[in-house]
Design goal:
about 260 residues, Rossmann fold, eight-stranded mixed sheet, 11 helices, globular
Length: about 260
């Protein structure tokens, strides 16, 4: 199974953090008792939930042992973390708020989980998530075209591939479950700096399964060619490298 590198993931932490803040701003819970962050990653954003809801018991869940080990630095009296699989997770008591930031796209068939996640909420509880909506962009298209090259196809054929639906699709799903839903899309224009910054960005997330599926010699060749393709697709400008990144946001409140 592909593994996560918390350090690599946090390389552009400011840019990755902004969608979490924008999502959280639309959650209207005032004094929740139990807040759960599904797919919490290295935990630095989960810890900020204690600032918004200082009396809440906050739990971060992630399937990556490396991420949970990194999250220990952010644990406190009201914030704890544990390894868990979103597909099988069920709370001991209903949650007042469920947050999921850029995680559900890694769960195959995650729309099928929406009924059980809503069921995990207390009456009047909130479910808020955001997922990338950029899978048709050059960063991903070039990745998969190169992975399909005969030199790499055998190694990469079975790798996991993240996916997400449109905001309107999630709105319809959750409305059918009796929720009041606010759904929208935003395209961030990230200005990145450093050598091959788009590769650095995607190698910590979307390209991770492909890169880890390759042998060391294959990976060296793949990375060299992929970086060149990305440099052409995302040229350096006077102000840096522009990476447009579309994201899908959903905030749903369960009926009381």
């Amino acid at each position: 199974m592909p593994t996560w590198d918390p350090g690599r993931y946090l390389h552009f932490s400011e840019e990755r953090s902004r969608p979490f803040s924008d999502l959280l701003a639309r959650v209207g819970a005032e004094e929740p008792a139990r807040v759960v962050d599904l797919g919490c990653g290295p935990g630095q954003l989960t810890a900020t939930l204690a600032e918004k809801w200082p009396t809440a018991e906050i739990l971060g869940i992630d399937s990556s042992h490396a991420m949970i080990e990194a999250s220990a630095a952010h644990a406190s009296a009201h914030v704890r973390f544990e390894v868990g699989d979103i597909r099988r997770w069920r709370p001991a008591e209903p949650a007042d708020v469920l947050i999921s930031n850029a995680a559900l796209q890694w769960v195959p068939g995650h729309r099928e989980l929406l009924p059980s996640l809503v069921e995990s909420l207390a009456p009047g509880g909130w479910f808020a998530f955001q997922v990338p909506g950029n899978f048709d962009e050059p960063s991903h298209r070039l990745l998969h075209e190169l992975a399909a090259d005969p030199r790499f196809a055998e190694a990469t054929r079975q790798v996991e591939r993240p996916s997400a639906s449109a905001a309107a699709t999630y709105l319809a799903d959750l409305s059918a479950l009796g929720c009041q839903v606010d759904a929208w899309e935003t395209t961030y224009l990230h200005v990145l700096e450093g050598p091959d910054p788009v590769f650095t960005w995607i190698s910590g997330t979307g390209a991770r399964p492909v890169l880890q599926a390759l042998s060391a010699p294959e990976r060296k060749v793949f990375e060299s060619e992929y970086k060149a393709l990305l440099r052409d697709a995302y040229p350096t400008r006077d102000f840096g490298v522009l990476l447009p990144f579309r994201r899908v946001f959903v905030v749903a409140q369960k009926a009381s």
